[in-house]
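Anyone opening a protein record will find just a pair of labelled lines. A complete record is shown below as an example.
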Amino acid sequence: MRFEWADALELPYDSETFDAVTVGFGVRNLADLDRGVAELARVLKPGGRLVILEITSPQRPPLSTFFGLWFDRIVPLLGTLAGDRDAYTYLPESVKRFPAPEGLAMIMDRAGLERIRYTVLAGGIIAIHSGARPA
C-alpha cells in the first residue's frame, strides 16, 4: 500500500485500476460531490468496491437536539477559544450541506454503482456507504 496526493475530481489513474477505493471523512469536502463520486467509481475495476465513511446529521431526538447544539454553538465557541473560529465553523456548515444518507446513495447510483448499501451508526452521526462497479 502507498499513499498519494491527487485531485479527487480528476484522478491521475486509468479507468478500472483499483479493486477498492475508500474515503473517510473526505467526500463532504469535495467541490462537486457528483463529479467526485463518479471519478471514484471510474477508477474501480469491474466488481470493485467504493466505501465512504462520513459524518451525517442525526434525525431523532434527543441526539439530534444535542448534535445541533454541539455543532452550532459549542464547536464554534471552542474554535474561538483555540484561535481559529473559521475552521471550527466550517465543520458544522459542511455537515449541514452534505446530503442525508439516502441522498449520497442516490449520487452513488447516478455514478453507475450497484449493490449500494449504507449503515447509519453512532446514533445517526456516522454513515458508511458501499457500492460496487458492475462486473
